[in-house]
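#struct-pred
JK: can someone run the complex with iron/sulfur cluster? inputs below
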Amino acid sequence: MPYDDDLLCPGAPPWTEGAVVFGVVSRVAGRLQVDWLETKTPATPDILALTGDTPPASVLRTAAKCPESCCAHFDGDECQLIGRLVAALAPVASARLPCPIRGECRWFWQEGLAACGRCSQLATQDDHADIALREAARPR
Ligand code: SF4
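RT: done, structure tokens with the ligand placed:
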């Protein structure tokens, strides 16, 4: 497990400096589902261009160094966003599948597999998110 300072935020947008792609989002039976890559890969302009007219943040899951106090979700000690997501969403079973950033993920570091059970059903940009998800994602 890395030091706290080295953790990655799995909600970082694709254009964040140093971002890596670690999953691909699809919609299955009306629900979002994340399929993990075997290894994380740099979110280069060429990779992001593969999504065509679809915003990369809608279909690619990307992570970057957690900005801690520069993020509205960070309370000085932990990310509050994942706690709200765990409370608001039911887990999905695919959460146990290998995720290539699990060893350095802030959400996993804080919440363990409970985080993965929610993360596995999210897109970084979800224009169709329901009210419960929008409320959980709202910075306090
Ligand atoms: S919360 Fe779990 S599934 Fe999501 S990025 Fe972190 S380790 Fe991977």
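RT: quick notes.
The beta strands are 8-9, 20-28, 31-42, 60-65.
The mean pLDDT is 93.
JK: thanks, will look after standup
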